[in-house]
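Board notes, transcribed. Complex of a protein with adenine.
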Amino acid sequence: MNIAIICAMSEELHAVQQQIKMPLISQIDKAGNKYYKYSNEKNTVVAVVSGIGKVNAAITTQILLDNFDVDYVLNVGVAGSVSKVLSFGDVVVAKDLVQHDFDITTFGYKLGQIARLDTFSFQADQWLSDLLLDGLTSEKGLKNHNISYGRIVSGDQFINDAEKAEFLYDEFNAIACEMEGAAVAQVCYLNKKPFAVVRALSDMAGQASDDASHSFERLKIMAADCAALAIKQLLERI
Ligand code: ADE
């Protein structure tokens, strides 16, 4: 099976690379990013840092699909919590994703609806998401961390505002926010490619007096390690 892994930041990819126990067979440069290809007798993994934000994520996803014969796409990394019950180090596997900053409401559309697209949210692949959940909740998974399955929202904004976090929860029924997942999802949707998104929480997005920028800086490696553990477990299962 050919798996693509997209991380927004080098810290996230580094955590993932520590869990890929496969020989590195090539490094390919495209559009300013390095695509690391690993292979063993069972699987091939291509892992890349896309850069932060939806445009970077979309470019990288399309490059992966056009050049690497990918079967499944995974977006892995950290996120902010917009739930009141999920906290630092908890993990969210996306059920579906919405771009919370796509706004054509002036034409009568719901906030988040992509113009002229036949879906509101992008559904993650059930089989792949179930494998991630199974790995995370297994004996070798994450102990003492909440593992959740729900909606993730993405936008070109780092959320550090309790009111905005609450709005994202109320408006979209989202449990986590980040800046790439729904863009990866949109590209996969248009290419009819299955995908999954797994994110561990580095901050509270400004809720509960949390300064999200401080938490993010302090906890991003811890959270990236939690998300990467999901990849380790997944690779043992496929
Ligand atoms: N990634 C991690 N934390 C985030 C936040 N609070 N907002 C957007 N993206 C994030």
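The chain has a mean pLDDT of 97. Residues 7 and 49 are 5 Å apart (CA to CA).
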